[in-house]
Amino acid sequence: MEIKKLKFLEGAAEAEGLTVIIDVFRAYTTAAYLFANQAENIFIVSKIKTAKQLKKKLKNSVLIGERRGIKISEFDFNNSPYFISCHNFADRNIILSTSAGTKGIIAAQNAAEIITGSFVNITAVADYIKSKDPQLVSLVAMGNNGVTEAAEDNLYIDQLTRILENKKTFSKAEIKKRLRSPAGDRFFVEETQSEMPAEDFEYCLKINKFNFVIKAEKVDSDIYQLKRKEGD
Ligand SMILES: O=C(O)[C@H](CS(=O)(=O)O)OP(=O)(O)O
């Protein structure tokens, strides 16, 4: 199995084969908590305009998203796993638009298959890849805003590669320690607790809390639907 390691939006556009779009802080952690809290459908879009248009078409829809970490005005929730985990989304159609993660899936137009990456289901993702045993896997670290390095996405690639290659992995404690600062500093700013609460750091690093994989399926060029696939 060849493992191609890519970065940012330009890397997503180069992804081929079975592709993992990685966004630990916070989009693909949030998506996992949404499914865990009974969300019926999750649609992801890159543009705010598309999100608002889709809301008009879907019943019981909820708009979730941020730009540079701050909730988009007129949206219902920020992209926060902690705030999301406090609500039940049964029968709701979720529309999610974020700075990096959701844009990455939309950019990965050459991927044969897309799944999402975050620490809350890293073992399920590794098992899924091993079970498919593809010739080529693309791992895309989306970074901050899809354009600059994010330690958490890079560490995820490192850990996932180690699992796939049966090498020694980092412990949960080591992962938390490495990511607390500077990467995690954004969650400990007093003035922005209503947007990026301290709990998000913990929730993003509840490693292997979930045993499902999240697949992204194309609806049209700017809309993908996320689907939950249970692990074995
Ligand atoms: O919601 C977030 O914290 C991030 C903001 S940024 O890209 O790290 O600036 O969005 P996401 O798309 O989840 O990375």
Structural write-up:
- The structure is a single chain.
- This protein is of the alpha/beta class and 232 residues long.
- It has one domain (2-230): putative 2-phosphosulfolactate phosphatase.
- 34% of the residues lie in helices and 26% in strands.
- It is built from nine helices and ten strands.
- It has a ten-stranded mixed sheet, sandwiched between helices.
- A hairpin with a 2-residue loop joins strand 9 and strand 10 (223-230).
- Helix 1 (8-14) packs parallel to helix 5 and helix 6 (122-132) packs across helix 7.
- The protein is globular, with a radius of gyration of 16 Å.
- It starts with a strand and ends with a strand.
- The ligand O=C(O)[C@H](CS(=O)(=O)O)OP(=O)(O)O binds next to loops.
- The site of ligand L3UKIRZJ has 14 residues, from loops.
- Its cofactor is Mg(2+).
